[in-house]
Amino acid sequence: MGDSGRAWFKHCHLLDSERPEEICTWSNHLLQVLHLSIRLHSSLHSQELAGDLGQTYDSNDTLTHYEKNSMGGQTLLVVGDLSYADRYPNHDNVRWDTWGRFVERSNAYQPWIWVTGNHEIDFAPEIGETKPFKPFTHRYHVPHRASNSTSPHWYSVKIASAYIIVLSSYSAYGEYTPQTLWLQDELPKVNRSQTPWLIVLMHSPWYNSYADHVMEGESMRVMYEWLLVRYKVDLVFAGHVHAYERSERISNIAYRVVYGGCRPVLDENAPVYITVGDGGNVEGLSKNMIEPQPEYSAYREASFGHATLSIRNRTHAFYNWHRNQDGYNIVADSVWFHNRIWTPYSEILPSLK
Ligand SMILES: [Fe+2]
After folding, report:
1. What's the CA-to-centroid distance between 205 and ligand 1, angstroms?
2. Ligand 1 centre distance from Cα of residue 213 (Å)
3. Is 213 an active-site residue?
4. Which of 98, 217, 244, 316 could cross-link to 54 by cystine, CB 3.0-4.6 Å?
5. Residue 80 has what pLDDT?
6. Ranges for the Calcineurin-like phosphoesterase domain (predicted)?
7. Which of 41, 65, 119, 213 is the catalytic position?
8. Whole-prediction pTM value?
9. How far apart are CA 52 and CA 185, in angstroms?
């Protein structure tokens, strides 16, 4: 991380409490357009690219589209799976370094918020590496202690009018575990007058109608979904599935094993779930979809791209998804989101059958 990154994290910490006058400065600066949510997969195809900021064509295309977007994103939310170094012999850490150089053109100048993905685990006992997450956590520091987290894999940051909670799909989330205790303590702290927009990031999506990674997020959903509904989280972003999908505003928290009844329903207290695992990577797109498209799935498409979220005020946020095959400012999916606290009515007109 460069000095600018460290400087930003200092500001991020200041947003919490230390110097309110700086909070105002940053909030006013960021409030107008807060761009969120992009996931980048990157890896080297060949040695020829090693000296030239290694990346796949698609990864570079995504980042270029993000940079050329006239909306001018100010923060990037990276929902996990960064370098794909673990796909190379002995988890070649040079790939981590080349990825760092590839993305430096952006994250040297604006904050990137890191989420832990499965390609960050780097657990390789066959070569003596028995400590998970080492290359990732050594390179990409996060301000987890500022939110009383004991781990860099789950934490929160405030950015302008958004309160962003980062969760870890690859850390324990059972009852009594550190991540669960932290989340239970964290959600009641969110002051929706200060930060009206409550956003959760994770890697493995809870709602996914592609054939890849089916049900991988289900156990975490069972544990945490009721909490996100209780505290009226506005949006949940995830990656992992190499495609794009946006859900209706739904929940599925009534289920109990003893009486069944498991079915997502429209729920105005629930988040919208968005998968943006479409950054472009060596593994390619997830093209196989479960048919027919579930009613809770509002839009899905297997294309590389990125998404932007422009928080306009405490009631409205404008969301867009952009495809790499389109021009820089072309929008493929677009929706206005209404804040769950300040405008709690639904954006959804039809009901699920
Ligand atoms: Fe993944």
Report:
1. 10
2. 9
3. yes
4. 98
5. 93
6. 51-244
7. 213
8. 0.85
9. 45
